[in-house]
Design a protein that fits this description.
alpha/beta; D-Maltodextrin-Binding Protein, domain 2; 2 domains; four-stranded mixed β-sheet; 8 helices; about 20% strand
């Protein structure tokens, strides 16, 4: 019996699958990449038990755990003026032609000149991201994508820069709630960094009070100090009280003469 994991383009699940192989060598993994439009359908049709997805998705019937954020970047031809910037303001891209559906980048759509003026031209036929990158390299337009996507499909004739003004995207782990199994619980623990010795009965972080710290475990030194203190208290209680000495008059006193001794 195997365990199937789907992941959307740009996600690298190698670290988690390696840990799984170390902890559960008796359960082989089936790991495969999905396109964005099927990152949830692979769960619904049973091809995968868990899916590493890029949000947002339709979460109906699903349990979803956020994992990390992705920085958005703009990708353009190598000679583009963004090469001179470390961080590109979204407003500086308002006059560009986006080689994507504008609804994929709402922040750009809402300020784009070609959208506002109704002069946006039809997109060329592009069957996959590699062909999109060919259009970018030819100077036809730009794209705004997560950094992981730009890196995955990078070429020497294109450049990318972080873009300010576009929300970060989120990578999450999703599975069908009703199908939660021990294997799924095990994988959840792995992506959350839980050690193999951790108990599944431990209260999850979501259930803890906001800002609350886990209870401090008593140290051996604490126990030893407490025992020593108890012994000191018991010894003090068992010791008889000492008689209080009367206080002497201040100053020095002379020795008293013997009245029976006569002076010569």
């Amino acid at each position: 019996m195997s365990f199937s994991i789907a992941f959307v383009a740009g996600v690298t699940p190698t670290k988690w699958t390696r840990i799984w192989a170390e902890r559960r060598p008796e359960v082989p993994l089936e790991v495969f990449r999905t396109e964005t439009n099927e990152q949830v359908s692979v769960l619904l049709d049973g091809r995968a038990e868990v899916s590493l997805v890029r949000l947002p998705i339709d979460e109906n019937q699903l349990s979803v755990i956020g994992l990390y954020s992705e920085v958005p970047v703009v990708v353009a031809a190598k000679g583009h003026e963004i090469a001179d910037a470390d961080l590109v303001a979204l407003a500086d891209l308002a006059d560009e032609h986006l080689l994507q559906d504008p609804d994929e980048v709402p922040a750009w759509r809402d300020m784009a000149t070609e959208v506002r003026d109704g002069i946006r031209r039809a997109l060329p036929v592009m069957k996959d991201m590699d062909e999109v990158m060919e259009q970018v390299a030819a100077g036809v337009g730009i794209i705004i994508v997560p950094h992981s996507i730009a890196r995955l499909h990078g070429r020497k004739d294109v450049i990318s820069r972080p873009v300010d003004g576009v929300p970060e995207t989120q990578i999450a782990l999703a599975w069908i709630t009703a199908d939660t199994s021990d294997d799924i619980e095990e994988f959840i623990g792995i992506v959350r960094g839980r050690s193999s010795a951790s108990s599944r009965a431990t209260v999850p972080e979501e259930a803890q009070e906001p800002g609350a710290r886990p209870p401090r475990k008593p140290k051996k030194t604490d126990k030893a100090k407490a025992a020593a203190k108890a012994l000191r208290v018991a010894a003090a209680q068992a010791k008889p009280a000492a008689k209080k000495k009367s206080e002497s008059a201040p100053g020095r006193t002379r020795p008293t003469r013997n009245p029976r001794k006569r002076r010569s």
